[in-house]
Write the structure tokens for this entry.
Amino acid sequence: MSENDDKIETMENNQNVCIGIGEIIDIERYNSYRKLTRITAYVMRFATNCRASLVSDIVQKLLNHFEEKITSKFECKIREATGKLDDKLDTLMIENEDLRERIRAKDRVIENLVEKVGDNNNRSIDALKLANYNEQYSRKHNIRMLNFPEKRGENLKKAFVELVNSDLNVNIEPSDVLAIHRIPGKEGYQKPVIVKVRTLTLKYG
């Protein structure tokens, strides 16, 4: 049993005990009934005030004790909730930093890809220029012949070499002809012949 409970029980026991006024005040000391009555009233008022003060003190202590317990529980709950929130916040910060690092890594990859695309684009442009140059250079060795006699089962290389040697008076060997073939032409006309020779000297005589 607590101290407060002891005080309450003592107060209740005192209320149940009937004590005569003669046990508190020596009546024989007073020669006036009026004075005795006034003193008795003072004593009763003092006892009542003391009793009220004791009850008020007990109630106040109980309220303070209850408030301390409630405050302690609230603070405990708040600390627990705050701790959980701090843990979640730390986890989110770690995940956020991880995401930032991944984004930075992807940005670096994208930068490398952009750089490679730009480099490939430049190489493609250079390759296209080189291809155009090679095509133009390759065409320098080509001879386009119109109205070249067309025969079934013809040997174009042999016919071309014989024609050049006899009609153009240019000495040319079959090995000087790298390629020869006919290309599509106008309908009703003989198909043109494209001849690729080894050197420009053979082309321009």
